[in-house]
Amino acid sequence: MRIGMTTLILVSFLTALAATALAEEVQLSQKEELGKFLYFDENLSTPKGQSCASCHNPDSGFAEPHQNLPVSQGVLPKMFGNRNSPSVAYASYSPEFSYTYDDQIIYHGGQFWDGRADNLVEQAKGPFLNPLEMHNPNKVTVVQSIRISDYANLFKEVYGPDTLDNVDRAYDYTAEAIAAYESSAEVNRFTSRYDKFLAGEYTLSEEEQLGLELFDGKALCSNCHPSSGSKPVFTDFTYDNLGVPKNSDNPFYGLPKAFNPLKSAYIDLGLGGSGRAEIVEPEKEEGKMKVPTLRNIGKTAPYTHNGYFTNLEDLVHFYNTRDIESEGWPAPEVAANVNTGELGDLELNETEEKAIVAFLLTLDDE
Questions:
Q1: Residue 83 CB: number of other CB atoms within 10 A?
Q2: Burial letters for 219-237: b for 16+ Cβ neighbours within 10 Å, e otherwise?
Q3: Which residue range forms the structural domain that includes residue 277?
Q4: Cut 0.85: pTM above it
């Protein structure tokens, strides 16, 4: 018992020390500080108990901390979203949702796996009112909780003394402040071994160096996850259908018909089902999900939109061998628009797959 208590005290001390060191290193603006309070406040759900950090935890690379679940659980018991929570770290680098035309329309930017939010501010408004997430009945409930919070005065200092009196305006400012925190240096740290390598402060091992060469060459990873530049975020913010199989372990299939009328027949159409019919031709974008950042990928399992892959080794092997019949991979969840040009049969051997995984682990912030 004494040994356990000593260990607990030591862990608590080291955790506090690390938090203090980070606080000293990163100076947040008032708006960012307000956003941080909002981000971690578990009183902003109904019932109380879930915050933004519940599904986007710093210790998990600002992604889902419950890595035994393929998708994220809401504040209500036995209620789950249909997708794995992506990391909010480096999400602020994504441009507004838009498209370019070069022989074909290419969509990029926006937020969520399906790009349904134009930007980070619009994304931050969603979870509060989502019945499968924070489950608030309306904006009034959220704003009232902020009015009686310990940081209400800070909210007024940042946005004005009467700003909490107008529900719509206060709700918009809440999302703006959260987005400000998510855009801060505390969330987007650039402290990985790869960053140190770029700065000449770290030497890649032989395996990591081979992984980088494969990443930028034979494996074609950098086509969608560019590694160039002084501070690469390892995504081009486009949308792609990787041919990921349906995840039969997804608890979303078991939800009541009020939330999932199709039950196990539900198919996630990604960008093609995002509701952007005014600018997106759904049939040409079905199955396409936003290309995620690879930063902190060693901390953000499970992988892909439905959490099908529980480890990096299987994910890289899938990229390499998806189209090799003898590998026995299940059929894609969405068979249309599968990318067959940049993955599926890359002819990587086992050593090369392991090298790519070793390189990917250098992208974790310390």
A1: 22
A2: bbbbbbbebeeeebbbbeb
A3: 25-363
A4: yes
| 214 occurs within a structural domain | yes
Cβ neighbours around 165 below 10 Å, total: 11
Q: What is the DSSP secondary structure assignment for residue 331, as one 8-state letter?
A: P
Find out whether the peptide bond into 245 is cis, omega within 30 degrees of 0: no
Q: Count of CB atoms within 10 A of residue 9's CB?
A: 10
Helix axes 167-182, 30-40, angle to 10 degrees: 100
What is the DSSP code (8-state) at residue 165? G
In the chain, the amino acid numbered 349 is N
In a domain, 13, yes or no: no
Residue 326 lies in a domain: yes
In 3D space, the residue among 293, 236, 242 whose CA is nearest the CA of residue 268 turns out to be 242
Q: Are 195 and 364 in contact (CB under 8 A)?
A: no
- Cα(292)–Cα(297) distance, integer angstroms: 10
Neighbours of 356 (CB within 10 A): 29
The C-alpha atoms of residue 253 and residue 66 are separated, in whole angstroms, by: 19
Segment 78-93, tens digit of pLDDT: 999 999 999 999 999 9
Measured CA distances, 151 to 24, 72, 141 (Å): 21, 28, 16
Q: Enter the tokens of residue 135.
A: 């489950």
CATH number, position 151: 1.10.760.10
> What's the token pair of residue 251?
């608890």
User: Tokens representing 245?
Assistant: 């199989």
**Residue segments in the chain with a per-residue pLDDT below the cut of 50:** 1-17, 19-21, 23
Judge contact between 94 and 81, C-beta under 8 A.
Answer: no
Length of the chain: 366
Largest CA distance in the chain: 69
At residue 22, the pLDDT reads: 52
Sign for the CA dihedral angle at 275, 304, 126, 190 comes to negative
In order of 103, 143, 274, the CA distances from 296 in angstroms are 34, 33, 27
Give domain status of residue 267, yes or no. yes
Residue whose token pair is 């994304």? 123
How many structural domains does the chain have? 1
- CA Rg, the chain, in Å? 21
**255 φψ region: left (φ > 0), alpha (ψ -120 to 50), beta (else):** beta
